[in-house]
Amino acid sequence: MKKLHYLIFSATLMIGSAANAQLQVEIAGVGGNQIPVAVAAFADEAMAPSEVSAIIRADLERSGVFKVINAGQVISDSASIDAGAWKARGADALVVGSVQKQPDGRFAVRYKLYDTVKGSQLSQLGGEVQPKYTRLQAHRIADDVYEKLTGTRGIFSTRIAYVKENRAARQYALAVADADGENEIVAVSGREPIISPAWSPDGGRVAYVSFEDRKPVIYMQDLVTGKRRVIANEKGSNSAPSWSPDGTKLAIALSKSGSYQVYVVNADGSGVRRVSNSNGIDTEPQFSADGQSLYFTSDRSGGPQIYKMSVSGGNATRVTFNGNYNISPRVSPDGKTLAWISQRDGGYSLFAKDLASGQELRLADGATEPSFSPNGKYIMYASKGGGRASLAVVSTDGRVKQRLTANAGNIREPSWGPFMK
């Protein structure tokens, strides 16, 4: 379990220098049976700070679900649509829209989605936003397209958190960005390692571990006010925070009793309660989707494996059996899929398992620190290749793959934020 300690508490010491630039997305794989969608340029979108149609196209392409066809022309949401002509061009759906600047400086962004096969309108969306939110509005439109054409909620308007390090300056930062890597902001920075960020279910707070006191301490950062508070600073090490689905509690790992054990604490840091009681190391707890159980890593059977137990404590049930080293459990938002990291064939790989059937799928090699998208269709993870650490995304069927990199330096410890209301 010394290796496990290293993965949990010391990984950021080796990840290189951070970059100030936005993250760059590289698409490495796409899904099968892509839906052909034509996206027209929006009327008068040049007056907005962001090119709305270009953002929508990039979002849909990045998902791997769509074959995006550039319409090559401007089409307003008020225009008359010849659905048959677009169907003849190979598009099953068409996105059109407009941008209008309002007297108060805001922008009215409107769009319509057409089914060219049935010749009918599928959806429309409109709203007035401040100039700085035109990009977000474009993501919301892409979300609507994704949902109307797949039946699953889109994740383009969500955010991600991750850790950056500038090794030369010994500077660590917890950064937050849009799901496409744009609009990055630094929420926390310091000269000591920062690890294990975890989003609150309401998307307004991030719990994380900082070594600024020369030991791991769990903090909570309010992303709106910029204020933070200590959640756990017990004797020994405080690590691996994860939120309950209702946002009222966190599961954490504490070593105050000697070896690491799983505890639950209220979101304000009060009411620390021990849950696991083993003679080994119990760590990396994660709430189940219904909040009634905890998945966690334990070496009680000899090597690290993943277990499940009631949030009130009691007997634990072993979940992973293939491989001698399984860590970092993550549960999909619908509770149907478990993702984790397994050491096999001399390296660390990302696996996912259907909890009902028990069927496992190897999704990616050279992976650590997985995090599910809020719709459960994608998993973001840390990957190291070419001497540099970056983030990567893979769909839960393994077909869609992409990589997020900085122009210089390294990023890791990803946490995918929730749907925002």
From TrEMBL:
Residues 1-21 form the signal peptide. It comes from the Bacteria. Keywords: Cell cycle, Cell division, Periplasm, Signal. It is found in: Periplasm. The keyword rRNA-binding does not apply. The keyword Phosphoprotein does not apply. Residues 23-122 form the TolB N-terminal domain. Its main location: periplasm. Part of the Tol-Pal system, which plays a role in outer membrane invagination during cell division and is important for maintaining outer membrane integrity. HAMAP family: TolB. Belongs to the TolB family. The Tol-Pal system is composed of five core proteins: the inner membrane proteins TolA, TolQ and TolR, the periplasmic protein TolB and the outer membrane protein Pal. They form a network linking the inner and outer membranes and the peptidoglycan layer. This is Tol-Pal system protein TolB. It comes from Massilia jejuensis. The gene is tolB.
